[in-house]
Specification:
Elements (H helix, E strand, L loop, with lengths): L3 E3 L2 E3 L4 E6 L2 E11 L2 E11 L28 E5 L3 E3 L7 H37 L1
Antiparallel strand pairs: 1-2, 3-4, 3-7, 4-5, 5-6
Amino acid sequence: MEPINQNDQNFKIGDNVKAEVRSGHYVGELIEINGSRALVKILAVLKHPEQGDLHNPYNPDVPMFHERRALSYTEKTTVLLRDVKPYSGTIPEYGVSLRAAAEAEIAALDRLHRWSAKGHEQMQQLLKEYK
């Protein structure tokens, strides 16, 4: 099959790629290319999608706080070619990669929670000093 050149990358059907889908990152197999879009079969999760409203990040007080599940093993999804990069590493087992990505997202949320609490504490102290 003829390679397709997109963003100075040559892609061909069957290539392993890294694809960014919404706020998640995945490893997948390139199944089809149609203009500026690619069909990718998901094989592993590198970064779990973020929760909440992506248009209002870190705001829990939105009308709809979205739950985003990771794409499933062998699920096929359409991705803009600009969001596809070559992937040459070892492809981890899907279940292991899903758990690792979810745990990493939880750790990031925990760190953000601790940062928020520390910032709140310091702002309360400054407010006392500002009186």
